[in-house]
Amino acid sequence: MFSRRDIHLGTLSLLALSACSRGASRQPRDGAIVRLSDDEVKGLDPQKISDLTSLRVASDQFEGLMRYTGAGEAEPGLAEPTHRGALTWQFRLRPALRFSDGTPITADHFVRGWQRLQMPDTASPNASLFEAIAGIERDGPAMVTVRLKRPIPYLPYLLAHPAMAALPLHRIDAIGDGWTSERPLVTSGPYRLIDWRLGDRIALEANPAWHGGAPGAARIDWRPAEDKLAALRRFRGDMADTVSDVPPTRLEWARAHLPGAVRVHPYAGTYYFAFNTRLPPFSDMRVRQALSMAVDRRWIAEKLLGTGEMPATGLVPPALGGANADPLGSEPEEIRALLADAGYGPDKPLRFTIRFNSGGDHRRIAVALAAMWRPYGVEAQLLNSEAQLHFAALRSGDFDLARSGWIADLPAAENFLAVHRSDAGAINYSGYADREYDRLLQAGMTGDPEALQAAELRLQRAAPILLLHFYVSRSLVAPDIGGWQDNGMNIHPSRILHREV
Asked: pTM here?
């Protein structure tokens, strides 16, 4: 699948990497731990962001009633739970809490923060995550009550989300959205932002007013690195301490040349492509089913990628209760029959475009899919675009088949399934709309686990998405960085990281 030129360039890249020697001379960093992210931060307001990079940086700066541990679990943050009921949780704020500018943090900040999250003017992309919360109330300046519409076992994780953190509403009220331009940024968590240079770095320093005292490192520099090979070179050259992703094609090289730095672990996420079900040819379920059946997922996961990925025929990762059953099968004659019934064959080839964004292994996977479908008379063209344009096309429905996927916001099966509800809005890229699926999902969300499994099976049979594999995280962590714990949520708070002497 690779040209001679691809191989030649890969060889040159490895030679360039080999020329570097990590640890030979420490790069000056002013005492900061340097972390490379997959992309540029999209915004600083925790209620108006949804991409992973922005959320990770927000979690370093803003803390809520709960927060994430280094193991990816939820633990008490600014408050201790005093009552955990089926529909009511109560929290007592820690004493003498203050924002980084010295302003006291009170129960009102959580009540008003919840109200702001629900406002149409806020336009929070995460608001639907919290639909099971009926409301947040105060019972005195230091007591917060969270009321639920239904029991949800993952409430601590919801309350650890940056969108539910204590926000400096005294600054937001005073200057509107301009508060995110202030330096240092007023925050409630272990760090505060002191500098943001687009395309270069976000510099965080320890928040002197944080209730937890001094975090593990006095300063954190987040630097964007969409080019994963360039990130690997920077790590090898001792210009970074953590890297969020390693190209699978370089993983064995990294293991050989960067001993002790490579960290691979199962990740709560599913990689798939979305069919545009609104328009032909993919408004026809038979076409979607045929293409899904013709894909050799095991070969993609184990041979093409080969870094621990598990082939996926189900949407929900097994660790979160997904069955990963295969209700469609893979018989070639049945595939041809489905395409023929839909009107496609030698006299009328099935033609469409596979859209994918730059970076990662998306091109290699798209090439493999086109090759697997070719024996069935399918003619698939490739269309590559940068990430912002790609996802804008998905939100507007301007595609045939497009690279997508889902990374867990919280460890719950319904977090994966709710994306495909008919009323999910722009995040339902495929446009899948099925009343029975919605009904099953709603029943599952109100306490019937069998209904959740039935909803997932119905989604698999309808095939609005082309499921391919479950993610693994592939990180690089410098051997002298302590506090890193591999976990399925791939959450690694900066406050826990430290440089070991």
From this structure: 0.84
